[in-house]
Structure prediction request, 385 residues.
Amino acid sequence: MIHENDLAELQGQLAEAAKDFRKVAFEVESDRDAIHRHLDLPGVQWLAYMFIPPEYNPAPFLGKEGRKYYFMECSERVLSLEALSYGDVGVLMASPGPGMSGHVIYDLGSPEQQEFYYKRVASKPTWTFFSITEPEKGSDAANLTSQLKPTGEGTYELWGEKILTGNSHRGQLGIVFARRHPGPLGIEAILVDKEARPFQTEPHKLFGLRGAEPSRLKFEGYPVKESDIVGAHLTPSRRGLWGAIQTFNRMRPGVGAMALGVARATYDYVLENRRDLTESETSLWENYRVRIAGTKALLLKAARIADQDASNGALASVAKIENIRLVEEITADALPLFGTKGIWDHPYLMKWYRDARAFEYMEGTSMIHKLHVHQAYLKGKLADV
Ligand SMILES: Cc1cc2nc3c(=O)[nH]c(=O)nc-3n(C[C@H](O)[C@H](O)[C@H](O)COP(=O)(O)OP(=O)(O)OC[C@H]3O[C@@H](n4cnc5c(N)ncnc54)[C@H](O)[C@@H]3O)c2cc1C
Prediction:
């Protein structure tokens, strides 16, 4: 956890990095190669090394008295993701770094897999990806159909199609989920090295959050070795899709944090650019000020719970639902405050409106999270939150 004495320094640096992100937001949105021209931005460099554990990380954030931060804890991550998304969430998502695939490796990878993965991402800016979604299976991931077919002793072929996988077109390393046996325990996480063994990818055309560059992936007999199956040393109930559930619980507050960053950016932008708010508009914006403070507190609490007990993802679900609701509403309410011309005169507001629509689909839709929360409530898991 970040030491209290380091917090102001960290927040100051994040705020500066967010300003850089804001400046290049439209360039990164319109040109998918633009991020390569901004690898020297402090925020981008930071993301490239965030979540790399101490034994492999050459560039941790340095606090006072030499304290080093690696952002392995969820509560540290939400602070940084929220602050950088305040600048621009598209640049954040376009940046290299371990992200979710790194966490699967951290939680489930063998020592050899961890060494391979982390040495690689620490050696140069590396874009990574994490692929579950299929054309016919989004929320219903336990029924995905991509196949891992045995071809010999410890060798396999991967067959199937994935969609909407962020950073997979520009990415080099990733995790792809595919089925080796029937049933949810038969789904394996496979480490794929696109640089060494390329496969077909094609970016989707997106309305918002284009920096994430979600893409289509096609595997037609892609060669896989036993050593590429993440956590092959673990039992089926502790690896694959089943084993990654705790990772999802810990990563989920991050999506809420990105949504909150965009909501806060919209809130401040309106106050800075529309000084003559009417009484009812002032009251609307005052209501958003209170909601931003409330959802932030909820998010931090969900992150702390995820750090203490990753099997309890209920509050992370609540935090995601509330932050997504907030960002969708505030970005929709902001535009009309500037009249019809707002769409042209205030492109950031239009961008944030578009970006905000993507969060709903990342890491599970609100409907799926409501089902999680309902089940947790019935099991008494929300009682002492
Ligand atoms: C910007 C962006 C980035 C993404 N990045 C990734 C990524 O990196 N990797 C990856 O694998 N995927 C990624 N996704 C995909 C995302 O995870 C899926 O879009 C999501 O799982 C929803 O799946 P779907 O779009 O197929 O919708 P569906 O699952 O078809 O759902 C459609 C609607 O039906 C509802 N619904 C579905 N099942 C139920 C149910 N049982 N009960 C009630 N309602 C239900 C849903 O809430 C939703 O409203 C990304 C998506 C976006 C937009």
User: Anything to note?
Assistant: The domain at 123-235 is CATH 2.40.110.10 (Butyryl-CoA Dehydrogenase, subunit A; domain 2). The mean pLDDT is 94. The beta strands are 61-62, 68-69, 128-131, 147-152, 155-165, 173-179, 187-193, 200-203, 215-225. The pocket of flavin-adenine dinucleotide is lined by residues 129-133, 138-139, 164-166, 209, 212, 214, 358, 361-362, 365, 367-368 (CB under 6 Å).
